[in-house]
Every structure is written in structure tokens, then in C-alpha cells.
Amino acid sequence: MIPRYQTVLFVVLLAASVVMGTVLWHLRDRAHQRLLQDQATAPTQAPAVAPEVQATLYVANDADNSMQPQVLSLPLPSSPNERARAVLSKLLDLYAATGATHPVPGGAGSIAQIFLLPVPQAKGSPADGPELAVINLTGAFVNSHPSGLETETLTVLSLCATLHATLPRVTQVRFLVDGQPRPTLAGHADLTRTYLATEAMPTEGANP
Predict the structure, then answer these.
(1) Start-to-end Cα distance in the chain
(2) pLDDT tens digits, residue range 113-139?
(3) Model's pTM, two decimal places?
């Protein structure tokens, strides 16, 4: 014979289970109704994308050690940092493509970050003065870059020139690799110096 206290305990536990099941079912039903309501009120239009604008990329050519301007329509964000990264990523994608005039592996993923910093100016100078761009390259890109003075110099100068063409306020460029200074790109091009972006721009009919 089952003791009375066990019978009472069983009934209490059964009742508690029924109550908890009922509460959980109601909570589930409310969550489902809220999800349906959110779906009904959510915007149906696609998220906004950056508008396409014309951008000038200075593409290196190993055949004659030159850089040629190439105008492309690219979806460029409004943020200067994101815009800088977008154009340089496109440039490196061109270099990584089959049949590139300046073949360098890596592509867009070769740029870890880009920082835009104000260049110190005399007191009273306008706030929207020149900027220093710090391009943080990945170690994988640098380690796989072809070695040679000409090819390394073309990579560095084409990055500087493309950046200045897109963001004219960028007048100086420095390079890091995985967030740290590095002496050279692949044994030749100096990465310890500050490059003047305007000097990287090729003059018509001249090599860099």
C-alpha cells in the first residue's frame, strides 16, 4: 500500500508539472506571435548599398615599370576610412587577377586596416587639413610579395597614388605589417619612411 504522504507528493508534483507546461506553452505562443508581428512590420526593401561612383586607380605595369590611371565605377562608402580600404582592396584584387600587369598574390584581404590621422599643422590652420594614412598590410601579403626593387616600389607607389586620387586630403602614407613596423616590403622597398602621396602620382608620360 502506497503511503499517504507519497500520494500527496505525487499529486503536488503532477499539478506543478501541468502548471509549468501551461505557462511554457503560453510563453511559446506569445513569442511566436511577437515574431509574426515583427515580420509583418519589418521593412521589405533591400538594405541600402553604397552608390557607385567613379574612382581612379593607379595600376602598375611591370612591362615598362609604369603606373597608368584606370577609372572604374565602384560602390564606395561615405566613410573616408572605408572608402580608402575599398579602393585599395580593388587595386590589390586587380593585381591578384589572372593576367595582371603587375601580378601580386593576396587580393583585397591583404589590407588589415587603414587609419587616417590629421597631419600636425600650425596653430590656427583649418580643421580639415592634410591627413596621414597608415596602411596596415597583412604578413601573408608581404611574405608572398615578389622580391625586387622595381616591383616592390610599384606596389607601394600605386597604393599611395590611388589613395591620394580618392582622398586628396591624404598627403602622407606610412605602412605597417600586422600592426608592426617592418624594414622593407620584400627586401627592397623601404617601409620605414613616410611617403608623400603627391610625389607618388606619376606625371604624364613618365615612370614613377
Answers:
(1) 101
(2) 999 999 887 676 666 789 999 999 999
(3) 0.74
Q: How far is Cα 67 from Cα 202, in angstroms, rounded to an integer?
A: 7
Q: Are strands 66-75 and 111-118 parallel, antiparallel or unpaired?
A: unpaired
pLDDT digits (tens, 9 = 90+) for 56-99: 999 999 999 999 999 999 998 989 999 999 999 999 999 999 99
Contacts (Cβ under 8 Å, ≥6 apart) of 197: 133, 160, 161, 163, 164, 170, 171, 172, 173
Please calculate the CA angle 130-135-140 and round it to the nearest 5 degrees.
Answer: 170
What whole-number distance in Å separates Cα of residue 197 and Cα of residue 132?
A: 9
46-58 burial, b at 16+ Cβ within 10 Å, e below that, comes to: eeeeeeeeebebb
Q: List all residues 6 or more positions away from 184 whose beta carbon is below 8 Å from its beta carbon.
A: 152, 190, 191
Where are the domains positioned within the chain? 1-42, 52-200
Q: How far apart are CA 51 and CA 76, in angstroms?
A: 6
Contact 200, 164 (CB under 8 A): yes
SS3 state of residue 55: strand
